[in-house]
DNA sequence: AAAGTTAAGGGTC
DNA sequence: GGACCCTTAACTT
């Protein structure tokens, strides 16, 4: 296992959070600023961003952000009663998935991209606990652009955490984070610029 | 079939 | 205006 652990992660400029029922690892500058700038511009321009509609409490509503689901052809993804088929890999993202897989010593074969135009775009409390992701999925979250707050709260314990996800940073959610915790990206009126988030996941082939 | 809901709207401070 | 709670009421698994 060559992934950063609590004992060696300082050498790799990684912050480790050992929480009840969850492990988080945060690399503030996984990508250099110029590399992150370039990737953000490229993705913003070249991807087919969609405003999906989902059903919630009986209402059909447009999600307050734009998204793309991408990866290996077998990676079907379902949430809030809507089925998503993956777009084929963008070459740069296939490469990035492979680099992150190697760095974290964990396979990633699909990615959900979310584009938040400004602080009005957001995502409410939820967990990435879809059955196709398995019991204790590892989720690697790369942030580009506008820094945004990221909140986590335990489902049962009075335990909450706020992180600031910065341009070029990588956050790994591991352990039983998705089973015992929820997370959100709250509205932030003062955030004026675009953020793009990439959450790399692994879905086993059938 | 009971439980859970990645949403918005309306209240308060 | 904005941050934070609470409610919503119907569909899904
Ligand atoms: Mn999520």
UniProtKB/TrEMBL annotation:
Coiled coil (residue ranges):
none
Cofactors, names only: Fe(2+)
Q: Name one GO molecular function term.
A: cytosine C-5 DNA demethylase activity
One Gene Ontology BP term is: DNA alkylation repair
Positions contributing to substrate binding: 77-79, 129
Could you list this entry's UniProt keywords, alphabetically sorted. Answer: Dioxygenase, DNA damage, DNA repair, Iron, Magnesium, Metal-binding, Oxidoreductase
Q: Which PANTHER family match?
A: ALPHA-KETOGLUTARATE-DEPENDENT DIOXYGENASE ALKB HOMOLOG 2 (PTHR31573), DNA OXIDATIVE DEMETHYLASE ALKBH2 (PTHR31573:SF1)
Protein's name according to its UniProt entry = Alkylated DNA repair protein
Species source reads Alishewanella agri BL06
């Amino acid at each position: 296992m060559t992934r950063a652990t609590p004992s060696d992660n300082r050498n790799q400029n990684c912050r480790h959070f050992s929480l009840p029922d969850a492990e988080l690892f945060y690399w503030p500058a996984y990508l250099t600023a110029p590399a992150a700038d370039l990737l953000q511009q490229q993705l913003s321009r070249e991807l087919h961003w969609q405003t999906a509609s989902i059903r919630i409490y009986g209402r059909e509503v447009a999600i307050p952000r734009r998204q793309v689901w991408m990866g290996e052809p077998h990676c079907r993804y379902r949430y809030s009663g809507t089925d998503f088929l993956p777009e084929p890999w963008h070459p740069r993202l296939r490469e990035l998935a492979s680099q992150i897989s190697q760095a974290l010593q964990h396979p990633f074969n699909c990615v959900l991209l979310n584009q938040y135009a400004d602080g009005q775009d957001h995502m409410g409390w939820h967990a990435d606990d879809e059955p196709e992701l398995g019991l204790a999925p590892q989720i690697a979250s790369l942030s580009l652009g506008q820094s945004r707050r990221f909140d986590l709260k335990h489902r049962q314990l009075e335990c909450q955490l706020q992180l600031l996800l910065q341009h070029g940073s990588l956050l790994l959610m591991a352990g039983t984070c998705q089973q015992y915790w929820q997370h959100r990206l709250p509205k932030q009126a003062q955030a004026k610029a675009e953020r793009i988030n990439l959450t790399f996941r692994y879905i086993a082939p059938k």
